[in-house]
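Dear U.,

For the methods section draft, I wanted the exact inputs and outputs in one place so we can describe them consistently. I've listed the two proteins in the order they'll appear in the manuscript figures. Please don't edit the token lines directly; just add comments below if something needs changing.

First protein:
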Amino acid sequence: MQDITISTLLDMTAGLASGHNDQDRFNKLLDAIRKVIQCDCIALLGAQQDTLLPLAIQGMTRDTLGRRFKVSDHPRFEQICQASGVVRFDADSPLPDPFDGLLLDYDGELPMHACMGLPLIYADQLLGILTFDSLTPNVFDSIPDRSLEALSAIVASHLKVALTVSKLEQQAKQTQQRLEELNQEVWERDGGKIIGSSRAMQALKQDIAVVAPSDFTILIHGETGVGKELVARSLHHQSRRRQQPLIYVNCAAIAESLIESELFGHVKGAFTGADKSRLGKFALADGGTLFLDEIGELSLTAQSKLLRALQNQEIQPVGQDNVQSIDVRVLAATNRDLKHEVEQGRFRADLYHRLTVYPLNVPPLRERDEDVVLLAGYFLEQARKKLAITQLKFTRDALIQLPRYDWPGNVRELEHVINRAALKAKAKPQQAATVSVSALDLALEQNDVMPTTPAVSDTVAPAVVRIKDLRQATEQFQAQMIIETLQRANYNWAGAARELNLDRANLVRLAKRLGIQVTKEHKIERSS
């Protein structure tokens, strides 16, 4: 046996560090050992309860790796496992060799040969064994026990490190897989795809498809309840970061004194109450996406700290001197007009421009009448599942009423209305197996007082209806003005739109919502 030189130790360590997988690492370890001990075959076996599993072999047939050796069935292995040091077997030992018939380029039973084994013990725990075989009898007898014991300790340490690395890699892989499954589960549970076929939603979906694969910072603007969070999730799901976390932060819910710690984290003792170190949202989102909802609510001080993180992709936890590099894509959302906020000095201009690399505007529900019934159907199905109803549907009057309401609370209001209506419908005595949600269950006030008016020509004024509130009065005024303008424009929508200073498509949508239509006979009808 050659001495265990620095070069040999370096070979072992380099093999451990450069291996791409366990098999690669263990083979490089055996390569380094064979430079010290000459043999015809060598095997590294790991201990798993009462069984030895081949981790790496050299000089034996490949099928050996697939074998499992129960220790009690192999006396030689049993002796090695129970020993505290090197075990040599006489050339004429009657004990059967577990590797008999498995040596490469040698058929038949093994002749007299040299056999030796080393138990690999780390912290009083048997990790495995290392075996050597040579067709030259007694070749291992001259190797000092002290050298072999040193080799055993070195290999055991390397094996412990390799197994630990393998375990950590497996845990990381499992964690990553769980994260991907959770991301997918949340995506599917919450509906995933954005519902809507209106022109405005088609344009939004197209914008999302264009910008999602990039790493651009995006500002999502829209009224309360339009679905800005769903847009953010769609952007993340269609990005290259979809397998990484999407971290949500409600900027409006964080106290000014805690915003820095919440976003960037802190170290233990950084301030009163910091009894342990804590990662911030940026660190948690590293490699993924950070969604900053209600970003317009941040103070100017917090905005300046956020700007630095966006510009340099660096964060500095509270109480820590060093900065940390991060890889985070930021999506922000607000219902405020940030451009106006900048003009009023309430929002930093440089942060505004940093956020609006690719702005997205989510249209309010009143501008996408065609989508109301689609969304209502989706929410009705969700309500059916929650309430354990076999069959749930809308009545015809409910379907007529839904698109005529303004929906000031947007999609969120629609969802709540449908849930309440479904609950009311379920509570009623049902004659049939199908539960029906009626217009009365929806309880949309403005439609409860809009009677059908007769068809009117250019000589007939619109019918007067009883007014209950400001919204109904406004709609009544809008309807009358549209009808009069259409009459003056000879029932031409484009001409009427120009006179009212409106886009033609918007005028048509408004008229539809108000129940106004022009017949082929050039009569204007307004239905309930």
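Second protein (the one for the lower panel):
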Amino acid sequence: MAESSLQTPKETRRQSKDQKFTPDFSGLLSEDQFLCSICQNVFTNPVSTPCGHNFCMKCIKTCWGDSEQCHCPFCKEEFTKRPELKVNTGFREALDHFKKKSGLDKPEVLCDVCTGVKQKALKSCLDCVMTFCKSHLEPHNNTPKLKKHKLINPVKNPEDYICQKHRRSLELFCRDDKTCVCMVCTVTDHKKHNTVPVKEGIGEMKSQLEKTRTEMQHMMQYRLKKIKDFKGSVELRKRNTEKEIADSVEVFTALMRSIERSQAELVKAMEEKQKAAERQAEDLIKELEQEITELKWRDTELEQLSHTEDHLQLLQIYPSLCRPPHTKNWTDISIDPHLSVEPVRNALSELQTSVEKMLSESVSTEVKRIQQYAVDVTLDADTAHRYLILSNDGKQVRDEKRKQKVPDNPKRFNGCTCVLGKEGFSTGRVYYEVQVRGKTDWDLGVARESINRKGKITLSPLKGFWTVRLRNGNEYKACADSPVLLSLRERLQKVGVFVDYEEGLVSFYDVESRSHIYSFTGQSFTEKLYPFFSPCKNDGGKNSAPLIISPVSKTE
């Protein structure tokens, strides 16, 4: 008598659809704790008494009957008032999970032949397409013809386990169509298909399911790790932000102290100069008052002399009184009412020096920080204009003003002497440094992958370029949508380029002086970015020096 435990795809799909995740509470309880102490079977609708014991709702109600006074069948604790019974949902979830794990949650299959009270089925016959209990299965055990029937473990719908087209049992699995088939199918619709016994096919499917499950677990583990990484990054960023805030507060506090100190020194100097001017004015006024007093006395004597009748006295005194008194020439003596700007200029100069020092220290710290994101950049020969010559290591590029024999391709610039880096990036932060010493013209920055590479190009963020440039040896510009003229104290020798993709930031630094040049902020990057270089035209040898990608030497 043949038996099999085959499952059809239809039943597999049905079971998969019915599956629902339930927390595994059952691992916390022993098997005995899932048995009702009254009926000694697995709980059905478990309820809890006030004393904390669990029973099947039907069992406890039967035990108590209609009595108002009742007790716990397990511990015998008496309740003066009949407790209101409610299903213990938490315990029922654990119970349901236990039933699933132990196979007790499968619906009971009943005999198709029984009349009245149906008995539990023992087997299903795929030839009879019926399910039988132990007594009704007896003919299949004794009748020679029925012994040849295909019997399987009891199922509710035996019809699902036979081929609907040929009315034969589904004994084979078609690997091509991923479905169960009968023997007749293998010589008709599935004649040239790869078929195997159902057991083997189910084994393969289970193996594949296990492989898929393993992959899913790896995916979950990876995502859990990413969550941990993200949380760690957020926490690290929080600490860095707190440090940056503290550092910024310290810088601005020092700046305000410097301003306050400069202001105090300036006020003090101005007050001292005012006091000096007041003292000078007092001395001059005192001297003038003395001269006025003497002149008044002389005037009085002259007036008296003019009225005298003593001519001899007049002749004798006149020479001494007519001589002008000894006084100062006040023509060129004055007090400047305007305050000298020298104290203000000196105070502002000291303040500027202090601010520049703090700014330099801040930028130097920033450069140290971004140098940790240094990447190895190599020039991509497939993108280089045919006038450009690249070094063998891909770290230098210059214009020789003569065509190189290179194949044409969509990636190559053919109108402007430009080249891209091989390494593109679409996430994270990158930093690299380029030596520009000895050049009169150049362009540096990053460009998005989809930029126009043919004919004349315009360097601007709207066109997919974020760059700075030098022209005529001393004209520096940031190629924003509206170009920005840059005022630099020193001629650039080495330029640092930093990109924060997620932040939408492209910054340029003077590596030698550790100073900031320019930043494109608030950009929105949606595709891969590549380092961008243009050594510009040779200009008769005046601009023959190469652009050199330099190794990053981290600042100590």
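Candidate sentences for the figure legend, describing the second protein: The chain has a mean pLDDT of 84. The radius of gyration is 50 Å.

Thanks,
Y.
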